[in-house]
C-alpha cells in the first residue's frame, strides 16, 4: 500500500515538473518527456516487485503424499491450477507418470507465498526431474545426483532359514534375492541348507554424495559380486562375471558356469509343501500321481522361467487355473500352475531367459490354498525336478578365462582390504 502511494506521488511530481519546464522558454534540456516518465514508473514498479519478493521470499517445502491425496490437491495451496496440472502431467511424460504417484512419494516445491515456482520429484534412486514455471510457461530439466560406489561385506550363520538369517544380519533384500537365485541353480534350499551353515557375501553399494530430501534412502545395493556358502563343510564359491562374449552371470572359481539347465525352485523364499509322487488329491479325493512340486509362498510372489526357452501356452488350463508352459529344447518342458496372473503382454511364442519373471503366485483352478505347482517334463514324461541332472555347461576358455581369473584376484583383494578396514574401524 505504501509503495503504491509512493509511486503515485512520484508520478505527480514528475508531471508537475514537466508542465513547469514546458512553460519556460529556452529551458528545453530540462524537459521530461513521456519516455522519461515511463522509465521512472517502470523503475518504481520494479521497486514494488522487489518489495513483494521481500515480503514473500522464495521458500522450499517438502511434501509427502499421503493416503487419498493427489498431486493437484497437495499443490493447490501454492496456486497450482487444473490447467497447470494438465500441462505439467503432459510435460513429465514419458519420464514420469504423475497419475501414478504413490503414497509416501515426496515432492520438493519451491514457492513464493502462493506462487509456485517449481516442483522436483525423484524418478530413480539417483535421477531427479525438475519442472519449473517460467515467463514462457512450464519447462522441465532432468539431472543426476553424484554417487560413489563402495564394496560391502556381510557374513552370517544360518539359523531358521537362509532368507531370515540374511535379513537379520542386514543383508539388503535385493542382494538376498540375487544370492538365492544364483545358488538355486544347483542347491535345493528345502533339503540342502542346514542350521549352522555359514555365508559370506561381497556386493557393491552406491552412496549419494550430497543427499536431498526426496528419499530417506541414501545408499543402494547394486550387484552381488561374490558369495561363499559353507555347506556340509565344503565351501561353494561363486563369482559374478560379465562380458560381451558370454552370458552375464555367476561362475565357479574354475570358470565353469554356476547355473543349471533348469532351476529346481523357480521362485524365491518358498516352502516346499508337496513333493513329486503318488498322493491323495486334496480336492478330488482319490490317489493319483502328483507330477510336480508344490511351493507355498505369499500371494503375488514372482515366478521365474526355469530356463531359456519359448512360451508354448499362457492362459487358462482347467484344473491348473492360470498356467504357463515353456519349451526349453533337448526334450524339456516346464509347467507353472495356479498363477494369480501373468506378466503383462506375455503370450505364446515369446522367448524368455532363465530367471525372467513370467507370472505371480496365486490360487486359481483346483487349488485349496495359494501355491505354485511346478512340473518338469522330459520327452513328454514328468520327472522329479529335485532329481533333475544338470546338463553339462561349457567352462570359460582362453582370453575369457584369463579375464575371469583377473576378476577373481580382484575380488579376493577386495575381500582382504575390506575386512582389514572393517576391523580397524571397530577398534
From TrEMBL:
Limits of the M23ase beta-sheet core domain: 289-385
Annotated CDD domains: M23_peptidase
Keywords tagged on the record: Hydrolase, Metal-binding, Metalloprotease, Protease, Signal, Zinc
Gene Ontology MF annotations: metal ion binding; metalloendopeptidase activity
Keyword Nucleotide-binding: no
Leader sequence segment: 1-21
One example of a Gene Ontology biological process annotation: proteolysis
Cofactor: Zn(2+)
Keyword Metal-binding: yes
Listed PANTHER family: CELL DIVISION PROTEIN YTFB, PEPTIDASE-RELATED
Protein name stated in the entry: M23ase beta-sheet core domain-containing protein
Organism: Pseudoalteromonas amylolytica
Lineage: Bacteria, Pseudomonadati, Pseudomonadota, Gammaproteobacteria, Alteromonadales
